[in-house]
């Protein structure tokens, strides 16, 4: 069967159509970054108005591009139910419910982070449950034990900023231009600078490594690291318009952030990749999973622990409609169908599913 997936949780309006035999028929997106970049962050009401304007034509484009007859060929409608910005989620949920109800198709409300976590299964039928999932994105930093569809245990999460937020804030501290939406946004710019810099020029402390109790604590923290970058610039009166300073600061920040991630991942691997559970697979997804330095570092870690590593292709790491359609198919196959009255859930912990 075919699924149509609608994603409006944040600033991009995205619709994708996917088949249960893993063919991506269309992947359409309307970007809003030009609206929010001058404001220095996402403005929820602007985002909602933009979704309301664009969603109908993005749905039409996705249907035309897929060359499907919605009534005949589309079997389920899937939509992001949460987490995300309430007013933005509402636009997608309303459209999806109307479509599904009128067309008499089942509707599936999808958890956005579960969709990120299931995306690699769309591309690789060999990826079976259970697996460890590292979700690194604009709003979340999570290490999960993904047991099956709808069942994820949180092993580690950030106690303050997400890693994506930290990348975005440091991009701003360094006064760097943003790459446009689907090229990765601010984080991608920072990575480009970091790849040309010398990480050993500056030494940022790796978060949560002060003492033994911090080292053994599986939680993550990225706000202190961002503040350390800010203070260093101020105290040393560093010239952030200087390209070399920018590159070296970007590299040193990226190094510390990724070392932190790897350290906490190690704790979770030690917990789950042994004994009865013996997890042998690691998935990394979410916008920050586009980062080449992180991919390289994770490759090494996976080799060290003899884990199989799975990433979505870069364009399916950041938000898209395809991942929502695929998560819809996965949930449908487990009998997880919703009614036509459900509401969005802006704050929705992934371990409360099921
Ligand atoms: P969430 O999924 O938590 O709701 P979101 O949907 O807004 O958040 P995504 O689209 O999954 O986030 O990811 C966007 C984030 O990914 C941004 O913070 C962006 O800067 C970051 N990002 C994109 N490319 C890269 C990269 N190459 N290196 C680091 N960060 C990146
Ligand atoms: Fe996302």
Automatic annotation (TrEMBL):
<dbReference type="InterPro" id="IPR000905">
    <property type="entry name" value="Gcp-like_dom"/>
</dbReference>
<dbReference type="GO" id="GO:0061711">
    <property type="term" value="F:tRNA N(6)-L-threonylcarbamoyladenine synthase activity"/>
</dbReference>
<dbReference type="InterPro" id="IPR017860">
    <property type="entry name" value="Peptidase_M22_CS"/>
</dbReference>
<dbReference type="InterPro" id="IPR017861">
    <property type="entry name" value="KAE1/TsaD"/>
</dbReference>
<keyword id="KW-0479">Metal-binding</keyword>
<dbReference type="InterPro" id="IPR043129">
    <property type="entry name" value="ATPase_NBD"/>
</dbReference>
<dbReference type="GO" id="GO:0072670">
    <property type="term" value="P:mitochondrial tRNA threonylcarbamoyladenosine modification"/>
</dbReference>
<keyword id="KW-0808">Transferase</keyword>
<dbReference type="GO" id="GO:0046872">
    <property type="term" value="F:metal ion binding"/>
</dbReference>
<keyword id="KW-0819">tRNA processing</keyword>
<protein>
    <recommendedName>
        <fullName>N(6)-L-threonylcarbamoyladenine synthase</fullName>
        <ecNumber>2.3.1.234</ecNumber>
    </recommendedName>
</protein>
<comment type="function">
    <text>Required for the formation of a threonylcarbamoyl group on adenosine at position 37 (t(6)A37) in mitochondrial tRNAs that read codons beginning with adenine. Probably involved in the transfer of the threonylcarbamoyl moiety of threonylcarbamoyl-AMP (TC-AMP) to the N6 group of A37. Involved in mitochondrial genome maintenance.</text>
</comment>
<keyword id="KW-0012">Acyltransferase</keyword>
<comment type="subunit">
    <text>Homodimer.</text>
</comment>
<dbReference type="Pfam" id="PF00814">
    <property type="entry name" value="TsaD"/>
</dbReference>
<comment type="similarity">
    <text>Belongs to the KAE1 / TsaD family.</text>
</comment>
<feature type="domain" description="Gcp-like">
    <location>
        <begin position="24"/>
        <end position="326"/>
    </location>
</feature>
<keyword id="KW-0496">Mitochondrion</keyword>
<dbReference type="InterPro" id="IPR022450">
    <property type="entry name" value="TsaD"/>
</dbReference>
<dbReference type="GO" id="GO:0005739">
    <property type="term" value="C:mitochondrion"/>
</dbReference>
């Amino acid at each position: 069967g075919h699924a149509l997936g609608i994603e409006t949780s944040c600033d991009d309006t995205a619709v994708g159509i996917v088949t249960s035999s893993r063919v991506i028929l269309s992947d359409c997106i309307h970007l809003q970054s030009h609206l929010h970049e001058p404001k220095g962050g996402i403005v929820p009401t602007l985002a909602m108005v933009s979704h309301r304007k664009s969603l109908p034509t993005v749905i039409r484009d996705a249907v035309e591009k897929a060359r499907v007859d919605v009534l005949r060929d589309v079997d389920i409608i899937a939509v992001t139910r949460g987490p995300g910005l309430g007013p933005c989620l509402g636009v997608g949920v309303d459209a999806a419910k109307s479509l599904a109800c009128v067309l008499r198709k089942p509707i599936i409300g999808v958890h956005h982070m579960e969709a990120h976590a299931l995306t690699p299964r769309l591309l690789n039928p060999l990826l079976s449950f259970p697996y460890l999932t590292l979700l690194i994105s604009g709003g979340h930093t999570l290490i999960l034990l993904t047991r099956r569809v709808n069942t994820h245990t949180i092993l580690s999460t950030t106690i303050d900023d997400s890693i994506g937020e930290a990348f975005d804030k440091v991009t701003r501290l360094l006064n760097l231009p943003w790459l446009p939406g689907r090229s990765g946004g601010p984080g991608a710019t920072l990575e480009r600078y970091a790849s040309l810099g010398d990480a050993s020029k500056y030494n940022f402390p790796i978060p949560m490594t002060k003492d033994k109790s911090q080292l053994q604590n599986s939680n993550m923290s990225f706000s202190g690291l961002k503040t350390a970058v800010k203070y260093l610039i101020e105290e040393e009166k560093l010239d952030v318009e200087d390209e070399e300073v920018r590159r070296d600061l970007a590299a040193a920040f990226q190094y510390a952030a990724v070392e932190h991630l790897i350290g906490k991942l190690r704790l979770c691997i030690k917990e789950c990749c042994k004994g009865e559970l013996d997890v042998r697979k690691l998935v990394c997804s979410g916008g920050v999973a586009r980062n080449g330095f992180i991919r390289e570092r994770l490759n090494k870690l996976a080799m060290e622990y003899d884990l199989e590593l799975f990433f979505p292709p870069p364009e399916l790491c950041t938000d898209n409609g395809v991942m929502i359609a695929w998560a819809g198919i996965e949930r449908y196959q487990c009998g997880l169908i919703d009614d036509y009255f459900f509401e969005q859930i802006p704050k929705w912990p992934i371990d409360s599913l099921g």
